[in-house]
Automatic annotation (TrEMBL):
<protein>
    <submittedName>
        <fullName>Peptide ABC transporter substrate-binding protein</fullName>
    </submittedName>
</protein>
<dbReference type="InterPro" id="IPR039424">
    <property type="entry name" value="SBP_5"/>
</dbReference>
<keyword id="KW-0653">Protein transport</keyword>
<dbReference type="GO" id="GO:0015833">
    <property type="term" value="P:peptide transport"/>
</dbReference>
<dbReference type="InterPro" id="IPR000914">
    <property type="entry name" value="SBP_5_dom"/>
</dbReference>
<comment type="similarity">
    <text>Belongs to the bacterial solute-binding protein 5 family.</text>
</comment>
<dbReference type="Pfam" id="PF00496">
    <property type="entry name" value="SBP_bac_5"/>
</dbReference>
<keyword id="KW-0732">Signal</keyword>
<keyword id="KW-0571">Peptide transport</keyword>
<dbReference type="GO" id="GO:0030288">
    <property type="term" value="C:outer membrane-bounded periplasmic space"/>
</dbReference>
<feature type="signal peptide">
    <location>
        <begin position="1"/>
        <end position="24"/>
    </location>
</feature>
<dbReference type="InterPro" id="IPR030678">
    <property type="entry name" value="Peptide/Ni-bd"/>
</dbReference>
<keyword id="KW-0813">Transport</keyword>
<dbReference type="InterPro" id="IPR023765">
    <property type="entry name" value="SBP_5_CS"/>
</dbReference>
<dbReference type="GO" id="GO:1904680">
    <property type="term" value="F:peptide transmembrane transporter activity"/>
</dbReference>
<feature type="domain" description="Solute-binding protein family 5">
    <location>
        <begin position="79"/>
        <end position="461"/>
    </location>
</feature>
<dbReference type="GO" id="GO:0043190">
    <property type="term" value="C:ATP-binding cassette (ABC) transporter complex"/>
</dbReference>
């Protein structure tokens, strides 16, 4: 969901070759706006609309509008029935969930949506032949992990269609947040006949994708614009007010602001340099979101980064407070933890984040002491590091700030900047072809595991080289035996997070805030704290 937000949110991980282009409907998705069409900015193009393969926030945002699973998130980030007619019936041990499905749910081609569509989709995700980056998110389902490791067959996944409108799911253990997790894009159904007909082209163009949600894709011009229109086959179409949603791919925030001021788009995010001049305008607001941004370290390409003291020096050398105040100025907050504040709370409203004692903070003296130890161990005084970032204008400015901080505070360390378009940057990250990379992550479900699982060796070893058996043990127990003792579980997860931070594999920078301008005519837009944006209930008063 989820980017930068997995959920969303502008996230990290994978890019696939994409030959998508405009197909079907109006050839210009950004023109001909009607009074019932929402006009939005997209900071980058889509990579894929295949729910088994999508990884970045933009795709999850569009999928949340064009696809629908068992549940959707309501305004309070709680699961509400979608294709499922209500809450699942659970077995006594809480592991087996039985869902009744709507009989009036249809695909955009008119085919009925059935339990078989969920079975096919979920088996496809965990099938190693699919190479789904998000396969791990299904590991709580019986046999999912073994299937993904080629130890069992996809047909052995703990999900089956009792009949067309009854779906049964078997988990390894009962999970309190799993109904919310089922709203995530990877859990969307797929029409087997249609997907197999398209083959590897599924999800790459408008007409090679099938839709189950409130909207369908209308057009898609790569690196230019894409648009959605109301799905006439959607079961709840009478409660969808918008006729469509148009996205313009705009990487420059000043250009986006100009479009807003000229009434070409209905909302835009503001760069730091534009906050002061716009904060008194109608429709201005800032809010702290659930995504964190951090520098991810790869110990595989640059052997110098295998030295823990060097990684510690980098973590201690960056003045995050100054960065947030001067580069962002958008409600973001500097952080020293991997997980965000005020996102994961227990029944007593206690914040998980408060349990984490961050081992590294901004401290130039400590940074230089760590560097001295690193140089001695490496036997060298000069260290070169390449910094991978995105190709948006603000990304270069941000990277230059981090470069300046490192080179100023760590004598002998030089940093070069490598800017890449979204798809290429994600692909390089996935392949582990980088030294250090800026990235961000937003929660896919309301539990700290959605962050911590990213650095389990089975998840990210190929990207970072991180392989800590003790950390893996904490994560594994956090998904199994510790579930029966929530307080102890949180303590252990916090200990695991401290271990990850102490190893210096991530350098937390900030918890994302957003400064926005939104037209007064826009009503009902939901920006989920855990998840992506919701447009089903948007109404326009123009």
């Amino acid at each position: 969901m989820k980017n930068i937000y997995k959920v969303g949110i502008y996230v990290l991980v994978l890019a696939l070759f994409l030959a998508g282009c405009s197909s079907g409907g109006d050839s210009d998705g950004a023109s001909g706006d009607s009074k019932d069409t929402l006009r939005l900015i997209a900071p980058s193009d889509l990579t894929t609309l295949d729910s088994s393969l999508a990884v970045e926030a933009g795709a999850f945002e569009v999928m949340n509008a064009t696809q629908e699973g068992l549940y959707r998130l309501d305004k309070d980030d709680k699961a509400e029935p979608a294709i499922a007619t209500g809450d699942p019936k659970k077995s006594n041990d809480g592991k087996t969930w039985t869902f009744k499905l709507r009989e009036d749910a249809k695909w955009s081609n008119g085919d009925p949506i059935t339990a078989h569509d969920f079975v096919y989709s979920w088996r496809r995700v965990v099938d190693p032949k699919t190479a789904s980056e998000y396969a791990y998110i299904m590991y709580d389902i019986k046999n999912a992990e073994a299937i993904n490791k080629s130890e069992k067959k996809p047909e052995e996944l703990g999900v089956k269609a009792i009949n067309d409108h009854t779906l049964q799911l078997t988990l390894n253990q009962e999970l309190p947040y799993y109904k919310e997790l089922l709203t995530f894009g990877t859990f969307m159904p797929l029409n087997e006949k249609f997907v197999k007909k398209q083959g590897s082209k599924y999800g790459t163009t408008v007409d090679k994708t099938l839709y189950s949600g409130p909207f369908v894709m209308k057009s898609w011009k790569v690196e230019d614009n894409y648009s959605l229109k109301k799905n006439k086959h959607y079961w709840d179409k009478d409660h969808v007010s918008l006729k469509g949603i148009n996205y313009r791919v705009i990487k420059d925030e000043q250009t986006a602001l100009n479009l807003y001021n000229n009434d070409k788009v209905d909302t835009t995010e503001l760069s730091s340099q534009n906050v002061e001049s716009n904060k008194d305008k109608e429709g201005f607001n800032t809010n702290l979101e659930s995504a964190t941004y951090y520098i991810q370290i790869n110990t595989q390409t640059n052997k110098d980064l295998q030295n823990k003291d060097l990684r510690a020096a980098l973590a201690q050398a960056i003045d995050k407070k100054s960065y947030v105040e001067h580069n962002l100025n958008d409600g973001s907050k500097p952080i020293d933890t991997f997980t965000p504040e005020k996102v994961f709370t227990n029944e007593k409203k206690e914040d998980y984040n408060k349990l984490v004692n961050a081992p590294y903070t901004y401290d130039v003296k400590k940074a230089q002491a760590s560097l001295k130890k690193a140089k001695k161990a490496l036997g060298k005084d000069k260290i070169d590091i390449e910094f991978l970032t995105f190709d948006q204008d603000n990304a270069k400015k941000d990277a230059e700030y981090f470069k300046e901080q490192v080179e100023k505070h760590l004598p002998g360390v030089t940093m070069s900047i490598k800017q890449q378009p979204n798809k290429q940057k994600i692909a390089l990250t996935k392949k582990g072809d980088y030294d250090v990379a800026i990235t961000g992550w937003g929660p896919d479900y309301p539990d700290p595991m959605t962050f911590l699982d990213l650095f389990h060796s089975e998840t990210t070893k190929g990207e970072t080289g991180y392989d800590n058996p003790e950390y893996d043990k904490i994560i594994n127990e956090g998904k199994s035996s510790l579930l029966q003792d929530p307080d102890k579980r949180w303590q252990e997860l916090a200990r695991g997070e401290e271990m990850l931070l102490n190893d210096g594999m991530v350098i937390p920078l900030y918890q994302k805030g957003k400064a926005r301008l939104t037209k007064k005519e826009v009503h009902g837009r939901i920006i989920h704290y855990v998840g992506t944006k919701e447009y089903k209930h948007v109404k326009l008063d123009r």
